[in-house]
Amino acid sequence: MTHDEIDLERLVKFNSDGLVPAIVQDSTNNEVLMMAWMNLESLRLTLSSGRTWFYSRSRQELWAKGDTSGAIQEVMSLLYDCDGDTLLIKVIQRGSGACHTGNYSCFYRDLIADSKMAS
Amino acid sequence: MTHDEIDLERLVKFNSDGLVPAIVQDSTNNEVLMMAWMNLESLRLTLSSGRTWFYSRSRQELWAKGDTSGAIQEVMSLLYDCDGDTLLIKVIQRGSGACHTGNYSCFYRDLIADSKMAS
């Protein structure tokens, strides 16, 4: 086990499933692009490769963001919160955006507006 | 059951514990302030009161942000992501900041810098 591994496990609190939520933010304008989950291995891969890697809870596997879409995220900084149980990753977003729908951000819908329309 | 209740449960996917992560962002500069969890009741209280309410997993109770600290968060918009399982709330942050440590944001530590220092 390297120093890096020991240290990450001390600094970051993974939940009972071994995961931590990672918020991804565009470093150029601070827009929030997406939220996904990381396990220790995807966090280590993110740090070593300089691009975001996540853990898919549905597929139960690691995935490198942008491998199929080209929407690679280059890591500019990686912050962790006061409780050590949430990550905030500032990136340069390549391609047209972060969302699999084709939108720039995954947060393209307004709950208040949509609630009123539907009720 | 009101239309609002039906609708929120249709639009937002709560996890097996009945919770959804809520990212809170400063609407004035897009800085990410914190991440906390909401259940259906805290989401309804947030929408009806116009300020953030969360659910504390450790204390197992609802809490209104700022009730003890004065650091109230006025909701400007409430977005939900492509999967419907994460919220993004843009707020006006009152008081000195969002974090219980006294920091403006809960994300005041850099994992890469701290890993290198400790190893």
Automatic annotation (TrEMBL), chains A, B:
Q: Gene Ontology cellular component? A: cytoplasm
**Ranges for the Phosphoribosyl-AMP cyclohydrolase domain?**
34-108
Which reactions are catalysed by this chain? 1-(5-phospho-beta-D-ribosyl)-ATP + H2O = 1-(5-phospho-beta-D-ribosyl)-5'-AMP + diphosphate + H(+); 1-(5-phospho-beta-D-ribosyl)-5'-AMP + H2O = 1-(5-phospho-beta-D-ribosyl)-5-[(5-phospho-beta-D-ribosylamino)methylideneamino]imidazole-4-carboxamide
Q: Where does Zn(2+) bind?
A: 82, 99, 106
- Gene3D superfamilies linked: Phosphoribosyl-AMP cyclohydrolase
What keywords appear on the UniProt entry?
A: Amino-acid biosynthesis, Cytoplasm, Histidine biosynthesis, Hydrolase, Magnesium, Metal-binding, Zinc
Q: Main EC class of this protein?
A: hydrolase
Any binding details for the cofactor?
Answer: Binds 1 Mg(2+) ion per subunit.
Q: How does it assemble?
A: Homodimer.
As cofactor, the record names: Mg(2+); Zn(2+)
EC number(s) per UniProt?
3.5.4.19
Name the positions where Mg(2+) binds: 81, 83, 85
Protein name listed in UniProt: Phosphoribosyl-AMP cyclohydrolase
